[in-house]
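User: Can you predict the 3D structure for this chain?
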Amino acid sequence: MDLSFEWIIKIIETNWPMFLRGAGVTLLIALIGTIFGALIGLLAGIIRTIPIPEKGAKKGFLKFINIILSVYIEFFRGTPMIVQAMVIYYGSAAAFGWQMNPIIAGVVIVAINTGAYMAEIVRGGIISVDTGQYEAAQAIGMNHVQTMTHVVMPQVIRNILPATGNQFIINIKDTAVLSVISVTELFFQTKTVAGNNFRYFEAFFIVCIIYFILTYAVTLILRYFERKLDGPDNYIVVGNQAQIEAGEHKGIGQ
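Assistant: Here is the predicted structure, written as structure tokens:
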């Protein structure tokens, strides 16, 4: 079937509210899922980098928590999201009688999946911080929580921001798999449109462009915020008060 631009225009004119609703649901699930997933990953990544003592109850507790987190991370990183969606949505109904709202289920699935990836990203960000900073913090009397809060995490959050943004973009595309649990996101709406007029090529050509617009717009926004966080290219180095006063006296003497 040849591509018909007349059909593309007709489909857009007739079905634009469905495309708009689908895009809105896609962005909603991807955004909320990424935010909660980042929080899950942040917590998991911090816990996995807590130093384990050589003995005591704390050692056993931390080892147990680390095993649980490792199983969670490896399972959700090692299985497709489409399978996870089927297991969580239909499995919760079969095992516990929970009939979840498809959109809420979609947010939960995206958040859990994102959390598994973000946990490793956060852990890598924490490990990448120079060990000398940990030693310096301990030298001035900071405990592990204070070191993480005031020294390590501000650097980690800045360093993982591009990866978090990239995960958001991935989630925008991956929400398409949630159509298997009847989430009325963009892909689901497009299947409905294509089924109504049997112009599958034109309908999915339109949705391809919509996905590109969404992801490219998010990319530009994220790059803008990254540049804001980077600050200006040229920094004015200001000395301490003693250096400033010395410079002023030197100027007076000349």
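The two ends are 85 Å apart (CA to CA). The chain has a mean pLDDT of 85.
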